[in-house]
């Protein structure tokens, strides 16, 4: 798949870039099967520790697929991802971390408006939101505000077990600028960690799973992130 020549310029202008057909449906179905196995293992480990998996996973989010599975370590190095990332990041690319957002009728809430940077700070990073099911407005697809990556917005804080403690007042969002990013399974949205984004609630009662992988400039200076246990340089060179 040839990467369009305008990827870098559009990303720098708008803070996001959509590729509607980056992966195939058989590929994403295989990833869903692997994720189901990972989540089953996680739940069993929690039960053995005396924890309630339903309470711990109520947000519908699990971080660290590549830590547990070689399938996702391979995906982190997939040239299709890296070829799109290179015009955005440059020739030196490091995988940072990944997570699954698994929403169904039991996790039907939308994610609040936020920027990702407050969760990790340090150098700016790019996340890739990969639809593992057709993502529509009805089942909770992503929304973004083009150009919002050029400024940091002060966040409020709230912990209601829905996975987002850093939040922006929705009244401050200019709804006329919001883009609803509906994409088919296998499609991907690349976005800057200051790009304002949220998701619609899942009103469909069906799955709406998304795999989110995050990358950074491998030569950028960053703090040590204890949770990023599968982090690795995946193209070019890293810091000495």
List the helices and strands and how they pair.
Layout: H1 7-14, E1 16-19, H2 25-48, H3 53-56, E2 61-63, H4 65-68, H5 70-75, H6 79-89, E3 93-103, H7 117-120, E4 125-131, E5 142-144, E6 156-157, E7 166-167, E8 179-181, E9 188-192, E10 197-199, E11 208-217, E12 232-235
Antiparallel strand pairs: 1-9, 2-3, 3-11, 3-12, 4-9, 4-11, 5-8, 5-10, 6-7
Helix pairs in contact: 1-6
Helical percentage:
25-40%
For the record, give the distance between the C-alpha atoms at the N and C termini, rounded to a whole number. 33 Å
Count of helical regions: 7
- What is the count of distinct domains? 1
Q: Can you identify the CATH superfamily? A: q2cbj1_9rhob like domain
Mean pLDDT: 91
Number of strands: 12
Describe this structure in words.
The protein has 240 residues and is α+β, with helices and mostly antiparallel strands. The chain has one domain: Jelly Rolls (Sandwich), CATH 2.60.120. Helices cover 25% and strands 24% of the residues. It is built from seven helices and twelve strands. The protein has helices at 7-14, 25-48, 53-56, 65-68, 70-75, 79-89, 117-120; strands at residues 16-19, 61-63, 93-103, 125-131, 142-144, 156-157, 166-167, 179-181, 188-192, 197-199, 208-217, 232-235. The strands form three sheets. Strands 1, 2, 3, 4, 9, 11 and 12 form a seven-stranded antiparallel β-sheet that branches. β6 (156-157) and β7 (166-167) form a beta hairpin. The longest helix is centred in the first third of the chain and has 24 residues, at 25-48. The chain is globular, with a radius of gyration of 17 Å. The protein starts with 6 loop residues before the first helix and ends in a 5-residue tail after the last strand. The model has no long low-confidence stretch (mean pLDDT 91).
